[in-house]
Write a structure and sequence with these properties.
By secondary structure, the chain is α/β, with parallel strands linked by helices. The protein is 43% helix and 17% strand. Helix 9 crosses helix 15, helix 10 packs antiparallel against helix 11 and helix 12 crosses helix 14. The chain is globular, with a radius of gyration of 23 Å. It starts with 5 loop residues before the first helix and ends in a 9-residue tail after the last strand.
């Protein structure tokens, strides 16, 4: 079984006695159902699971369920023998977005306090915004992502002792020795190929067959595109077009979305596609990075609305699209292959999985810096520059950024393949894999 850090959060919540219902959001195929089922069955004598998407295309038992009494009645039809008490009965409502009215009902189920509940779904932000009565105060929402690099290391045989030792090295800004660095970089490059979708990771571990891994990634990529677009019948072609453009945008120098290229219509602006962007990000299949030209803490107060980058939620899907079954481009670190888009994608997914809202610096006069994150200790922004090649010390935009006294920058990072760790002024150079320790 794959180790998932979110299982600790789920278990702690279920054990805490909290009267809030835990709502696990995230893209499909990231493992929400599996991990909830695993934790729930271990903690509760009676585990009841209802998949609302399956119900919506089947018996539709819950399609018109608007009251607590009706919910209990329908539940009893499929699991009456498991309906015990709150202490020993967990009701898992899977794919709850299929019936938006059930999100409102959660408030009343929580107040009735008859059983313990947990729910999961995708596009929950959009669904909640369309819900007539949002159950605020009754739910606790958390987001689940594909496996991050730390979880990938566990899946490939690393243990807590090794990870803990690496974390301490990072905290002290110490480099790994050469053999250990080479081992972690080898696994990092394999992570770029495999990504973090559980089916792809399990297939890689079991078979080491890149073609089988790519088939899974391609199938999920197609599924994401079809699934995201079906939620908005009027705009599904635009949603699909934006999603399909993400890999090609990554190959451009600026990498940002160009509104006029979405439908090849001049005069189009980001405001024309606000709903489409919201669908892709809320579905968890795209990560949005907003532009900031004059950074100040907190960054959200300075975020611009007219410049945006979108990244795929899984680096394995991206490398599958870009390189297919050819693994040499990644594993051999070919000079002729620019892995900038791949490295930026993996850093975006790592930062997002660790709770960071994503921003980048865009200034017409000073250039771009790949990422900005909030530093709550120094109450300032932390710039992060991502380098996939050997010229990792060349970064004129970052130099200008850190030297601007108005920005009050305390520290900055450049992540690259280089093993050694050095600090020059405010800029610290660290290995790319240390990004897994950038917790919020």
């Amino acid at each position: 079984m794959l180790y998932r850090k979110i299982s600790i959060t789920i278990e702690d919540h279920l054990k805490s006695g909290s009267n809030k219902i835990l709502l696990v959001d995230g893209a499909r195929q990231v493992g929400k159902t599996y991990i909830i089922r695993h934790v729930g069955k271990r903690l509760f004598e009676n585990f009841i699971e209802v998949n609302m998407v399956e119900d919506s295309v089947g018996d539709r038992l819950f399609a018109e369920t608007k009251t607590v009494e009706d919910f209990y009645l329908q539940l009893s039809m499929i699991a009456g023998d498991k309906m015990g008490q709150k202490e020993n009965t967990l009701v898992f409502i899977d794919e709850i977005q299929a019936y938006p009215h059930l999100l409102t009902l959660l408030k009343f189920l929580q107040q009735d306090d008859k059983f313990t509940y947990i729910a999961s779904g995708s596009l929950l932000c959009v669904t909640l915004s369309q819900t007539t009565s949002i159950p605020m105060g009754s739910i606790r929402k958390i987001r689940m992502f594909p496996l991050d690099f730390e979880e990938f290391l566990y899946a490939n045989g690393m243990n807590e002792i090794v990870i803990s030792a690496m974390r301490k090295k990072f905290e002290r800004l110490e480099a790994l020795d050469e053999p250990m660095h080479n081992k972690i970089m080898d696994l990092f490059r394999k992570y770029l190929l495999v990504g973090g979708l559980p089916d792809a990771v399990n297939t890689y571990i079991a078979t080491k067959n890149i073609q089988s891994v790519r088939e899974i990634q391609s199938e999920i990529h197609d599924y994401y595109a079809a699934d995201a677009s079906k939620y908005d019948e009027d705009n599904k072609l635009k949603i699909r077009r934006i999603y399909d453009l993400i890999p090609s945008n990554m190959e451009n120098k600026k990498k940002r979305v160009v509104a006029q290229s979405i439908e090849n219509q001049k005069g189009r602006t980001f405001a024309d596609y606000a709903d489409e962007f919201e669908y892709l990000v809320s579905a968890g299949i795209a990560l949005d990075v907003q532009a900031i030209s004059n950074p100040s803490f907190p960054l959200i107060e300075s975020a611009g609305k007219n410049l945006l980058k979108l990244y795929l939620n899984d680096v394995g899907i991206l490398t599958g699209i870009l390189y297919g079954n050819n693994i040499r481009a990644i594993l051999d670190d070919e000079r002729s292959v620019n892995l900038g888009a791949v490295y930026e994608t993996v850093v975006a997914s790592e930062l997002a999985a660790h709770g960071h809202k994503l921003y980048y610096y865009d200034n017409r006069r000073n250039g771009e810096v790949d990422y900005l994150i909030d530093d709550y200790d120094s109450l300032s922004a932390v710039p992060i520059e991502v380098k996939s090649g050997r010229d990792y010390t060349i970064h004129s935009a970052l130099n200008k950024f850190t030297s601007n006294e108005d920005y009050h920058i305390q520290k900055a990072y450049v992540v690259s393949n280089e093993r050694t760790i050095t600090t020059k002024g405010k800029i610290t150079y660290i290995p790319i894999y240390y990004i897994m320790f950038f917790g919020k």
